[in-house]
Specification:
The structure holds 2 protein chains of 2 kinds. Chain A has no helices and 11 strands. By secondary structure, chain A is an all-beta fold. Chain B has no helices and 12 strands. The model of chain B has no long low-confidence stretch (mean pLDDT 93). Chain B is mainly beta. Classes of the chains: A mainly beta, B mainly beta.
Chain lengths: 111, 114
């Protein structure tokens, strides 16, 4: 989607390795979010940020960390990937009255 | 705590027939409600929202949603379904803590049959 990009789009990694997903926005929005999407669970919030270096946990934050050193970038790190973290990860920015704008997602497979 | 429920995992409807995708919510204050659609291998796209005002909200692609405060529901509707409407639909409520977090339902897969 215009204004927000995620990288990589697909990744396969081994159990126990660290993985970093990147979310980049060109909209200068203050709020950014990381969600994971799993069948039967919908989207669940992992972490969110309300400004540079200001982050907080969501409902499924265990095993994940985030960093936001610049307004435009929000990084999600899986410190030691596990098979339960196989999922599709979405970044979102708060678009004001139109709600969230989502990135295209990152499909992560942990083998 | 805010929550959203989508009671149907899948809805099947014949092309040309009206469709309804159900959503109920629980909030402590005034609800900010949204519907999003996800096509295969894509991110979620905004369809419509209810913040305040008319209970019938019109959105993209001919969709509308009816807000019912007494039943705490926000059902998505369309008068005449198209095969191209087949997708995954999510209802969401915005957290009222000031963080603009959204709580999503588990999603309903809509299948429109030709």
């Amino acid at each position: 989607d215009a204004g927000i990009t995620q990288s990589p789009r697909h990744k396969v990694t081994e159990t126990g390795t660290p993985v970093t997903l990147r979310c980049h926005q060109t909209e200068n929005h203050r709020y950014m979010y990381w969600y994971r999407q799993d069948p039967g669970h919908g989207l669940r919030l992992i972490h969110y940020s309300y400004g540079v270096k200001d982050t907080d946990k969501g409902e499924v934050s265990d095993g994940y960390s985030v960093s936001r050193s610049k307004t435009e970038d929000f990084l999600l790190t899986l410190e030691s990937a596990t098979s339960s973290q196989t999922s599709v990860y979405f970044c979102a920015i708060d678009g004001g009255s139109y709600g969230y704008t989502f990135g295209s997602g990152t499909r992560l497979t942990v083998v | 705590a805010q929550s959203v429920a989508q009671p149907e995992d899948q809805v099947n409807v014949a092309e040309g027939n009206p469709l309804t995708v159900k959503c109920t919510y629980s909030v402590s204050g005034n609800p900010y409600l949204f519907w999003y659609v996800q096509y295969p291998n894509r991110g979620l796209q905004f369809l419509l929202k209810y913040i305040t005002g008319d209970n019938l909200v019109k959105g993209s692609y001919g969709f509308e949603a009816e807000f019912n405060k007494s039943q705490t529901s926000f059902h998505l509707k369309k008068p005449s379904a198209l095969v191209s409407d087949s997708a995954l639909y999510f209802c969401a409520v915005r957290d009222d803590s000031g963080t603009y977090k959204y709580i999503f339902g588990t999603g309903t897969r809509l299948k429109v049959l030709a």
